Amino acid sequence: MSIIDKWRNFFRQGHERTVRAKKNVFYSILLKGLGILIGFAYFPISLNYLSAANFGIFLTLASIIDWFAELNIGIGSGLRNKLGQSVAKEDYQEARTYVSTAYYVLASIFSGVFIIFTFVSFFLPWAKWLQADVAQQSEIALLAVLMLAALAIRFVSSLIYEVLFALQQSARVQLFNLLTKVSFLLFLIVIVYTTEESLLLYGAGKTMTFALIPFFVGAYFFRKEFNNFRPTWRLASWQHFKDLFGLGIQFFAIKVAMLVIHKTNNFLIASYVSLEEVPEYEAAFKYLSIILIFFVLLADQLWAANVEAFQKNEYDWLKKNLKSVIRLWVGMSLLSVLMVVISPWVYDLWLGEKLSISLELSIWVCISILLTTWINIFNLVINGAGKIRLQMLTWIAASVLNIPVSIFLATKMGLGTIGIVIGTILCLVPLAIFSPIQARKILNKMDKGIWSK
C-alpha cells in the first residue's frame, strides 16, 4: 500500500464522528497555519509602522478591551453545548430558539455596555494607566471607544462561529479567520505605504476588520445553508435563556478567571516592569503558542463531538479519544522543546534587532503553555459532560492568587517579566491536578458529589 493510500485510509477509518473530526482538524491546521504565517508577517510590519511604545499601547489596550468580551455571560459556550445537544436529538425548532435567544441577549448586553463605555472612556486616565505620553490621552480614549464598538459587532456576529463549532464544522471557522487576517494584512500594507504612523488608524483598522468578516459570514449562512437556525427576535425565550445562562454563567466565571490568568500579563508587564517589554513577551508567546493553537483547534472540533457522544452514551469512544489526545500532547511537548532550543535563531530571522528576547523567557512561556494545554485536554471531557462546577471553582481560586503572586515575583523577588510568567504557572498547578482526576471519574461513571456537578 502506497503512502498516499495509507493517508487516505487514515481519514476514512474509525467512527463517523472520528472521521469527521480528523478531516476538520486537518483542514483547520492547514488554514490556521496559513493564518499564523500571516500573523507573523504583520507583526514586524506593525513594528515598522508603529514605535515599540505605541505598539505596546495597542497590545495592552487590546488586552483590556478583551475583558468586555466576557460580558456574554458565557452565552457563546452555553450555545455550543445546548445547540449540539438539540442537533443530536434532531430537535431543530429548539435549536433555532437557542440561537435566537443567544443573539438577542448578546445584542442587548453589548448595546448597553457600549453606550456606558463611550461616555466613561473620555474621563479615564488612559495615558497614566498605560504609562504613555499625556499628549496621547484623547487619542487613546477615542481608540478605546472604537475598539469596543468593533468588539461589540464582532462578538455578537461571531455567534455564527459557535453554530459552526456546535455542528462540528470547525474548519470553516478557520477559513473565515484566515480571510479576516488576509484582509487586515492588505489594509496594513496599504497604510504603511500611504500614511504616517497613526495609532488610531492602526487600532481602528485592525479591530473593525476582525468585526465585519463574521458579520457578513452570518448574514450569508443564515440566509442559505443554516436557514433552519436563522435567529429571529420572536423566538427569543426566557426559558431558553435560563438554560443558556445556567450553564453559561459557569462558563462565564471560568472565562473571566482565565482572562485574569492569561490576559493580564501584558497589563502587569506594562505597569510593573516596562511598556517596552510588552512586545518582547508578546513575541515569545506568539511564537511558542503554536502548540497552544493546535490544541485550541482540536478543542474546537472535539468539544461538540464530546457533547454528542455524551448525549448518545458512547463512553468507549470518549475514552479512546482521550487517550489519543494525550499521546498527541506528549508529541507536541517534545516539539515545543525543540522550538525553545532554536528560538534565538527564529527571533533573529523573524524580528532582527528590533526586540531582544531571552532564552529564559522562552523557557518559562513554553512551560506555561504546555501546562495550559494539559489542563484543556481533560476540560474537553468535562465541558462535554456539562459538569463544570469544580473546574469553575478551581479557576476562580487560581485567578484570585494570580495577580498578587505575579506582582510579588516581579517586584519583590526582582524577577520582572519572568516572575509574572512564573506566577501564572504556579496558579495553574491545582488545575493540572484536579482536571484529570475529574475527567477520569466522569468517564468511569464514578463521579459523585462535587465531581459530578
Features:
453 residues; mainly alpha
Can you walk me through this structure?
The chain has 453 residues and is mostly helical. It has 2 domains: 48-249, no CATH class; 264-453, no CATH class. It has 19 helices and no strands. The longest helix is centred in the first third of the chain and has 34 residues, at 16-49.
Structural class: mainly alpha
Give the DSSP E fraction (strand runs of 2 or more residues): under 5%
Oligomer: single chain
Q: How many β-strand stretches?
A: 0
Query: Count of helical segments?
Result: 19
The overall number of domains is: 2
Task: Give average pLDDT, whole number.
Answer: 85
Distance between the termini: 49 Å
**What is the rounded Rg?**
22 Å
SSE order, as H and E? HHHHHHHHHHHHHHHHHHH
Give helix % range: over 70%
Outline the biggest β-sheet. Answer: none
Question: Low-confidence segments, ≥5 residues, pLDDT <50?
Answer: none
Overall body shape: globular
